[in-house]
Specification:
homodimer, about 210 residues, alpha+beta, Glutaredoxin, Glutathione S-transferase Yfyf (Class Pi), Chain A, domain 2, 2 domains, globular, GST_Zeta_C (chains A, B), Thioredoxin-like_sf (chains A, B), maleylacetoacetate isomerase activity (chains A, B)
Chain lengths: ~210, ~210
């Protein structure tokens, strides 16, 4: 049987990883199509027809293509309400979204491949480029750790996985890759817990069909 | 009478401008507290108690502080449903959110003051820093124009203002400041329409109490 959903992404893309976790949590089966970002395949004519921004991920279903990982995750949460990725209370929802946006707005886009390539093209050497990424991640994850310091439970916001965990786990992969401090006690505990869950394990970069 | 809400922001901050528009659209009165970003006031001890990330805006109400402009806008949309900032249909909601996230994730954070200061500190000259910002904005707004090319109506997504317009208008201020191309026909029409509305006009940077 052909799956209803096709995820256009890349095994190492943190934003694609978020969507894979969300799809797995929701119990949705999907096919994957991988784009090698270093070969600029996301700017191929075929992909630009799906997403004129030329960014992965894009989630295709029937004749609909959705883009931007957080928008896709919220869409999945709306059409498949269980298990829910956002709390019921409006203030708590806002806190989960804010934590997610620290990662999706203020960390990840500043340290993604596209930006690091732009920095290299401006003459920065490899050490400077890696330091740029590590500084961005350290400052951002310091904020994340502080934002949940009054929360308890195994996940970012209590007893249940939320969008915050969906964003956190992929960011920690990049944190390690760029030599970030990894000194965040709560974030490390949450990561260990998440990675016991099948939905997170199956979404890991190394478990994707396009992994090299 | 004291207002229930205090917006901690900065007149020139695009993310604060988004929240001002949303508050105005929802008919909420609010006080403002301005932080001079060039003087690093957002990293003062007092503000870090409100938002450990040290980023504006933050919306304070009673003893609650909410952060991240999109999370704040969605919160306001949930507790004050009229006029709504997101369509009822899940796919349309996802499209409005995706457009908003192109701006809030992929344009604005790459060209904000903090990043431009980091580029200067790495030795880039003023022309290089301004070109960095202009390139980021041009590529991002090209994507925005493409994402709504099949939409009609005076606003980004039809006959009603949505979160997409709330994000677009502040970004266009930065686009002009950095000498972006401003060649986007639909975006320019939408801007002209939005700026006829009182909620947008009152939110403009030059109309804020901390404007200089």
């Amino acid at each position: 049987m052909t799956s209803q959903y096709t995820l256009h992404g890349f095994f190492r893309s943190g934003a694609s990883y978020r969507v894979r976790i969300a799809l797995n949590l929701k119990g949705v089966s999907y096919e994957q199509f991988g784009y090698k970002l270093r070969k600029n395949e996301q700017n191929s004519e075929a992909f630009l027809k799906l997403n004129p921004q030329g960014f992965v991920p894009a989630l295709e279903s029937n004749d609909t293509v959705l883009t931007q990982s957080l928008a896709i995750c919220e869409y999945l949460d709306e059409i498949i309400p269980t298990p829910k990725l956002l709390p019921d209370n409006a203030i708590e929802r806002a806190r989960v979204r804010a934590f997610s946006q620290v990662i999706a707005c203020d960390i990840h886009p500043i340290q993604n491949l596209k930006i690091l390539q732009r920095l290299s093209a401006l003459g920065l050497d490899e050490d400077q480029v890696n330091a740029w990424a590590a500084t961005t991640i350290n400052e951002g994850l310091d904020a994340c750790e502080a934002l949940i310091k009054r929360q308890s439970g195994p996940f970012c916001f209590g007893e249940d996985v939320t969008l915050a965990d969906v964003c956190l786990i992929p960011q920690l992969v990049n944190a390690r890759r760029f030599g970030a401090s990894m000194k965040w006690e709560r974030l490390m505990e949450i990561e260990a817990k998440c990675l016991t869950l099948d939905a997170f394990k199956r979404a890991m970069p190394e478990n994707q069909p396009d992994a090299v």
